[in-house]
Amino acid sequence: xxxxxIIGAGSFGTAIAVVLGHSGYSISIWARExxxxxxxxxxxxxxxxxxxxxxxxSVSASYAIKDAxxxxxxxxxxxxxxxxxxxxxxxxxxxxxxxxxVSVAKGIEQDSLMTPSQILVDxxxxxxxxxxxxxxxxxxxxxxVSKFKPTAIxxxxxxxxxxxxxxxxxxxxxxxxxxxxxxxxAEIGGAxxxxxxxxxxxxxxxxxxxxxxxxxxxxxxxxxxxxxxxxGASQDTFSGLTGMGDLIVTCTSEHSRNRxxxxxxxxxxxxxxxxxxxxxxxxxxxxxxxxxxWSRRNNIEMPITDAVYKVLFENMDPxxxxxxxxxRNAKDxxxx
Length: 336
Ligand SMILES: NC(=O)C1=CN([C@@H]2O[C@H](COP(=O)(O)OP(=O)(O)OC[C@H]3O[C@@H](n4cnc5c(N)ncnc54)[C@H](O)[C@@H]3O)[C@@H](O)[C@H]2O)C=CC1
Ligand SMILES: O=C(CO)COP(=O)(O)O
What we know:
Blueprint: E1 3-7, H1 11-22, E2 26-30, H2 34-43, E3 59-62, H3 65-69, E4 74-77, H4 81-92, E5 100-103, H5 116-123, E6 133-137, H6 142-145, E7 151-157, H7 160-170, E8 175-179, H8 183-205, H9 210-231, H10 241-252, H11 257-266, H12 271-276, H13 284-298, H14 303-313, H15 318-326
Parallel strand pairs: 1-2, 1-4, 2-3, 4-5, 5-6, 7-8
Antiparallel strand pairs: 6-7
Helix pairs in contact: 4-5, 8-9, 8-10, 8-11, 8-13, 13-14, 14-15
The structure holds 1,4-dihydronicotinamide adenine dinucleotide and 1,3-dihydroxyacetonephosphate.
């Protein structure tokens, strides 16, 4: 049986352990929490994340990265993007150099402004080739993936070979994997839709209406394209699963943590109050900071991201942010 390692036993790491375990792979999952490791090994459930789904018998857990990674054909990093550099650095010494490396994280690293796959290329240099590194991303809430609800997602990589291996490995009748070789566009889409989902949540929480939400999603997609195209990504990628697809699900789903954060801000709570009550991560919070750093540094207009940043970190009232967006200079609609 082929062994696959999953580094990070949060919601999505657990969900893909279920998918891959049921496909017949032997899954070794690394968690930093003792109770998670014990729960998976002793009871067959992750007590902290996706705790209502029984894990296949072929899933085991470890808190030693070395044990989790040893003798694997594929290593999937499923921590939030801000933890990726550190955990990949810890895993590096235990790689043989033959593994396919996959990131499922959706974010942009602060200061370096790197995407998850770029972080992996940087950290794992000398251990694996860039051609062995890829991603899996798209509209895929862990709560639904783990219950075998039909999901379509995208694999991408720095080589066609790695992208195809990722596609073949994950594909099941309920988890359909497409290929897109524009890895940068796929990662920009995955990261930025989280910022837009915070904005969508604010609209819902403040009861600003369906028109506002449609406008936000459409103009948000435009902003995602603008950043992606400025960096050399393909505009078409943003019409696909990793762009529009993930934007739709995250802005509308009851499962979205980013939308949840925005909703509660729209209801008048503070960011600190909201995040201190969550055991899961809403990547859009940190990504709003990184993308604002990027847009200001490069003088690229990203008004929605900027508004989310000001609400999250500069105490701007969401109603003032909406007013600022609505009263900008008149514009042509189609202009990247
Ligand atoms: N939850 C979902 O439906 C999906 C999530 N993703 C992405 O996958 C990544 C992981 O998300 P989730 O599993 O949902 O997060 P989560 O919040 O459910 O779990 C995060 C996991 O990472 C671990 N972790 C957090 N900080 C860490 C650190 N500094 N060092 C080591 N481990 C750390 C936690 O202990 C936990 O096991 C994120 O980038 C997210 O955007 C992608 C697709 C779907
Ligand atoms: O990326 C996701 C769905 O595709 C998960 O979104 P949230 O992190 O907002 O829950």
